[in-house]
Amino acid sequence: MQGNGRGVGRGRIGAATAVAGALVALLAAGAATANDDASAGAREEASGKSTDDRVDDLEQRVEVVLEEIDSLRKIFAVPEEGGLVSYSGLGPAASKVFQRDRGLSIGGYGEVVFAAQVGDEDGSQNELDALRGVLYLGYKFNDWIVFNSEIEFEHGGEEVGVEFLTLDFLLCEALNARAGLLLAPVGFTNEIHEPVFFFGANRPEVERRLIPSTWRENGLGIYGTIAERIDYRIYAMNGFRAAGFSEAGIRGGRQNGSEALADHFAIVARVDAELAPGVDVGGSIYHGKSGQNDTITRDVAMVPTTFLVPDAPLTLWEVHGQVRHRRAQVRGLFTQTILGDSAALSAATGTTIARTMQGGYVEVAYDVMPFLRGETEMTLEPFYRYERLDTQHHVTANALAAAGAATRDGNRDRALHVVGVSFKPHPQVVLKVDYRSVSAEVGGAADEVQAGIGFVF
User: Fold this and answer.
1) Distances (CA, A) of 390 to 151, 355, 358, 395
2) 153 neighbors 160 (Cβ within 8 angstroms)
3) Cα(199)–Cα(188) distance, rounded to whole angstroms?
4) CA-CA distance, 134 to 150, in Å (whole number)?
């Protein structure tokens, strides 16, 4: 391995040396042709070369330089030509490596978010957060083997993690393989979560609480495109760790690829279809056990007690669709989670865990910039999103009894109205501001004014 690396390095150094030598030769040749006719004639006599011969020689050197520059560009250059285009469900910047012939690809995104509380009903304070700084690193070994990764620095570098880490094997358009740390292909934003591609300073709450974005697990699977209009992905992944579930939902059960317990696996499948230009519909389903033969030790009547976590089979499904026509966009999603063994799991965790959780949202946006500036790459999009989610949608009587609760937590049944505007001075740079009004069946949360900046490259 090391020997191969040194060989590649020497090859590149040799290529760079050849380029430098050719450029020097070109400069020398150019200087020579700039001399007067008498000097040129004298040189021709001395060298025995005619003017035509010297021109042919110069053209050959130019070809050598161009070939070497193109070779180096293919190996080392960061791909930008053709714009950012999504591939196999990944975000456009994360897909850059697939546009290469071979070699290294670098991309990334970042976002900073400010949230100001209105009313302070729950005692929260204003917050300004360097939320994410992300680097995409990919390498295309040849025309069918691709490495890709997303390395994330969160909250000003307080947290560092790997969002995905994959090897793709590109077999044909209809069938390809992927293995490693995979993004679950569920919903709109779990795979495409770069800030310029969703409205609002933060991702939709439904896709944070019910679909626990960013959600990734270790596994392998296949994907492809059929009849140019139908995309699919089917993965086998390690399951959730049910010991992390709570009345707030399943988000705490993500294992994120870190020494993940793998006694129980799950299958996740997704299909998307383009019904017409700008009209897309799709859905996904996840199913697998979550117990992992795990145990929980907690105090019961001040006595440490160990509970065996049940298998807790979990099914999560969602349907989604969007329509984009000229300057308008409409998007919608609905999802539901069905959890088995919720009563036994409530007894083990000591919290009220629901059998079903569900929610959805509808979002509309319109680009008004053409009315202000005419034809331009900039956009100015006012938007509105309505969300409804309930992580305690149905709690069984047995689960309530096991957790020692009298009733389900009505504060988990929430409705959100989000209105705001998204301004892109460049297609890869965004400035956002929005107002979130939050209401709940019981209690509630403070409204928020949020603002953010984001970019992708």
Assistant:
1) 32, 12, 6, 11
2) yes
3) 12
4) 7
Interatomic CA distance for residues 58 and 40, integer angstroms: 15
For residue 83, what pLDDT is reported? 66
CB neighbours (10 Å) of residue 331?
Answer: 21
Distance (Å, rounded) from C-alpha 164 to C-alpha 152?
Answer: 10
pLDDT at 442: 79
For residues 246 and 351, the answer to whether their CB atoms sit within 8 Å is yes
State the pLDDT at residue 380.
Answer: 98
Token readout for 59 is 């053209």
Q: Specify whether the CB–CB gap between 256 and 216 falls below 8 A.
A: yes
The predicted structure's pLDDT at residue 37 = 47
DSSP 34: T
Cα separation, 268 vs 367, in Å, equals 35
β-partners of residue 336 are 317, 358
Residue 94 exposed, middle or buried by CB count within 10 Å (0-12, 13-18, 19+)? buried
CA distance 181 to 151: 12
Give the whole-angstrom CA distance, residue 367 versus residue 374.
Answer: 12
Sequence length of the chain is 457
Mean pLDDT per 10-residue run, the chain (457 residues)? 38 42 44 46 54 76 73 51 80 94 95 89 81 97 97 94 97 98 98 96 97 97 96 98 97 97 98 97 98 95 94 98 97 98 96 97 98 93 98 96 92 96 97 95 84 97
- Phi/psi of residue 34, nearest 5 degrees: -80, -10
Q: Tell me if residue 290 falls in helix, strand or coil.
A: coil
Determine the pLDDT at residue 125.
Answer: 84
CA distance 434 to 115: 10
Burial class (CB in 10 A: 0-12, 13-18, 19+), 426: exposed
Contact in structure between 396 and 410 (CB atoms under 8 Å): no
Yes or no: say if 220 and 178 are a contact pair by the CB < 8 Å rule.
yes
Longest dimension (CA), the chain: 107
- DSSP secondary structure string, 187-250? TTTTT---GGGSSSSS--THHHHTS-SS-EEEEEEEEEEETTTEEEEEEEEE---GGG-BTTBS
Phi, psi of 191 (to 5 degrees): -90, -45
Calpha distance 274→285 (Å, rounded)? 19
Ramachandran region, residue 8 (left: φ > 0; alpha: ψ -120 to 50; beta: rest): alpha
Beta-ladder partners of 162? 151
Of 359, 320, 319, 352, nearest in space to 337 by CA? 359
